[in-house]
Amino acid sequence: MRQFSGFRKPWLYCALTFTVFAMAAEPLVAQSTDESDSTVTFPAAYFSQFNPLTVNDMLDRVPGIDLIRNTRNTSADGDRGLGASSNILIDGKRLAGKANEAEAQLDRISADQVEYIAIVRGTSATLDVQNSGQLINIVLLEAQSQSNLSTEVTGKHFDDGTFEPGFSLAWSGQSGSLTYLLSGSAQPAYQHTYSVEQAVNGDFSPHEIITFDRFQNQTDYSFNTNLTWDMSDRDRLAVNALYNENDPPVDLYRRITNMDSGAAQTTYERESIPATANDWELGADYQHSFTNGSRFKALFIVNERKTDSTRERFAAATPEGPESKNLYLDTKSRYRERIGRSSYTMQLSEGHGLELGAEVAQTIQDSNLKLGVATGGPGAESHGGLTPVGFGNANSSVEELRIEPFAVHNWQINSRLSLESSLVGEYSEIEQSGDVAIKRDFSFIKPKIDLRYDLSSTLQFKATVEKFVSQLSFADFSRSSNTEDDEENTKAGNPSLEPEESIRVELSLDYRLPNDGGALNTRYFHYRFDNKIGGIDISTDDFLDTTNGNIGRADAYGVQLNASLRLGRLSLPNSLLTGSITVQDSDIEVDPFTNRDAHFFPYDRGGYRFGFRQDIPSRNINWGVNFVERIDGNRVRFDIDNRFELAAPGNLSAFVEMVGWFGFNYRVEGNNIKDAGRCYNRFRFAGDRRTAALSEVENICATTGPEYLFRIRGNF
Predict the structure, then answer these.
(1) Would you list the DSSP string of 289-315?
(2) In the beta sheet, which residues pair with residue 371?
(3) Domains and CATH numbers, the chain
(4) Residues 295, 124: Cα–Cα separation, whole Å
(5) Which residues of 619-635 are buried (b: 16+ CB within 10 A; e: fewer)?
C-alpha cells in the first residue's frame, strides 16, 4: 500500500503548527480559563464593544470557533438515530432534535440573553453529551420575565439579474420557569446554473457542444419552536418542533450542436421538473437530577421527510418548433424516524463517572421509481404517455429497527489527565419489501477511548481510538434516479449491501494563546476500513451495469493544521486572521474497475481556507473576506464504462457590516465573487473500460455566477 512517508511521523506535523507561536498576541481583557478542566469562558461583556445582535454575531469574534463549528464528530457521521455527540449546547443541554438542533438556533437567540459562552475542551460525566473534540456551551441569563423580537429582511441578487426577497422573524424570551423561542422564515433558494460541455470522439475529432441553462425557482419556508419548562429545581422538560417546505421546481434548456457529419446540426431540449418537498420534526426530552448528583434523561424524536419529482424531457429541431417527449422519470420518497434515548448518569467515586443507557430507533424509507422512454411502442398514461421501462427493485420499502445499549466511563485521573472510555453495542434488523424481499440482522460492538492531557491550562494533547460502523444509505438499496450522468437515467440498487467497519485513530494538539491572542490546532488521523463501500460490476451478458457494493480494505490518512490569530501587534486592532490546511490521501487496495489501488472521496488531496475580519468599534463597522480552495488531484471516480475526473472550484466571499440608522444592522455580502466554475472530464468507452476502446471525451464546466446579498436586522 502506497503511503506518504511523512504521515508515518505525525508528531513532526504536530510540531510544525507551533512554529507560528512567535506571532504576538493582541492583549485584550476577555477570556478566562478554568485551571481544572481547561474550559475557556467569554463573558457577555467581552462582546459589548461589537454591538452583537445574535449569538452568531458573538461567536464570530471568538478565535478558533470555526474549528469547532466546521468539525463533524466521527460518531455523528451516520444520518439515522441521534448518537451521543453534539458540538453545541445551550445551558449545558443538547436540543431534542436532529434537523432542529442547536446550530440552527444561533441566529434566533438574541445576544442580550447570553450570560457567557464557554469552549469546553475536556470530557466529564457532568456534560449532557460526549465531547468528541471541543464543544460550545451557550449559557443564557436567568430572568423572571424578558422577551425579544428579532427581525431580518434580505434581498439576493443573482448573476442573471434575478432579485429575490426573504425575511425571518423570531420571538424569544423567558416568563417565570418557561423559556421560549418561536421563529418563522421565508428565504430565497433560487439558482441559475449555466453549463458548457465540449466533447470529442475517441479519435479526438469534434463530436458535439452542449450548452444548458438550469433554473431552480425555490423558496425555503420554515417554522420552528423551542420550549423549555423548569418544572422544579430538579426537573426540566423541553419540547422542540420544526416544519419546512421547499418545493424545488426546475426548468432546463439545452442547445446541442452535433459535428459528427462535418456540418454542424443543432437541436434543442427542454426539461420540466415539478417537485414538492417538505419535512417536519417533533422532539422532547426530560431530565431529573437526584440529590446525590445523579441524573436521569429521556428523549424522543419523530420526524418525516417527503420528496416527489417528475422529470419530463422534450426535443425540438428549433427553439420554438414542435416538441416531442422522449423521457418520463418519476421519483417519490418518504423517510420516517422514531427515536428514543434514555440514560442514567452517576458518580461512582471521586473522579469516576458512569453513564448507562440505550437508544432505540426505527427508520422507514419508501421509494418508488417509474421510467418511460420514446421507443415507438405503446405508451402508458401512468408513464407520461411513453413506453414503460421495466426493471427490478424500483418499488421498495426499507425498515430498520436498531437497539444501541451503551456505557460511558469518565475517569479524571489527576488534575491534568482524563480518560473517557465507552462501549456501544449495535443490534439491528433491516427488512426490505416490495420488488425485492430480504431480511438481514447485524450486530457490532463499538469501543472508544479518548485520552486528554493538559500540558497547561492552554495546551492540550488528545488521542482517540474508535471502532466505527457506518450506517447504510437506504437509497443504495433500490434503483434510484441518476443525477450525476445525463446518459444514465437510473442507478441500480443493492439490497445485499453491508456496513463499512473502520478503526479510527486521531491525535491532536490544541493551544489557546495567552491574552486571548488566538488558537492553534493540529490533528493527525488514520482510518482503516473493512468492507469499504464503492462501485462494483453487476453486468450481465446483455447489459453493462454497476451499483454500490462492498469492495474490501481501504485506508484514509492525513494532517489538518488550523490557526486563528489576533493581529493587534501588527497595528491591526480587533482583527482576526484564520487559516486551515488539510493534506490527506486514501487507498483502496483493489478497485474493481481498475484491478489496482485507487483513491476515494472525500479523502482526496485536501484543501485550504483563509479568512480575515476586522471590527472598527468607533465606526460600528466590521468587514471580512474568506477564500476556500481544494487541492487538485486524486478526485477520480471509475465506473464500468467511464472515468470521471473532478476539479473542485474555489470560493471567494466578502462582506461589510455596520450598525446604522435606527440601531439596525446592515450587511452587504458577495459570494462566489471569482465566478469559479465546477469543471470535470469524463472519458467514455465503447463497452467495459478495461478492454474497450475510448469512444468519447467530455469536458464540462458549470457555474452559478456571483451572488450578492443585502440584509437588515434588528431587535425589539
Answers:
(1) E-TTS-EEEEEEEEEEEEEEEEEEEEE
(2) 329
(3) 5-715 (2.40.170.20)
(4) 13
(5) ebebbbebbbbbbeebb
Quote helix, strand, coil % in the chain, to nearest 5: 10, 60, 35
Residue (of 412, 474, 420) closest to 447 by Cα position: 420
Residue 496 pLDDT greater than 50, yes or no: yes
Work out whether the CA dihedral 114, 116, 122, 124 comes out positive or negative: negative
Main-chain phi, psi angles of 579, to 5 degrees: -160, 150
| Spatial distance between the Cα atoms of 236 and 249, rounded to a whole number of angstroms | 43
Cell 421565508, residue? Answer: 186
Q: How far apart are CA 242 and CA 245, in angstroms?
A: 10
For 204, phi and psi rounded to 5 degrees? 70, 20
Answer for the pair 478, 434: CB distance below 8 angstroms, yes or no.
yes
Q: pTM to 2 decimals?
A: 0.83
595-610 confidence digits (pLDDT tens): 777 888 788 888 899 9
Closest CA to 399 of 331, 305, 474: 474
Amino acid code (one letter) for 153 = V
In this structure, are residues 462 and 508 in contact, taking their beta carbons and an 8 Å threshold?
Answer: yes
Q: How far is C-alpha 470 from the chain's CA centre? A: 16
* Residue pLDDT, tens place only, 125-164: 666 666 566 788 888 887 657 788 889 999 999 999 999 9
User: Cell 463530436, residue?
Assistant: 207
Residue type, 192: H
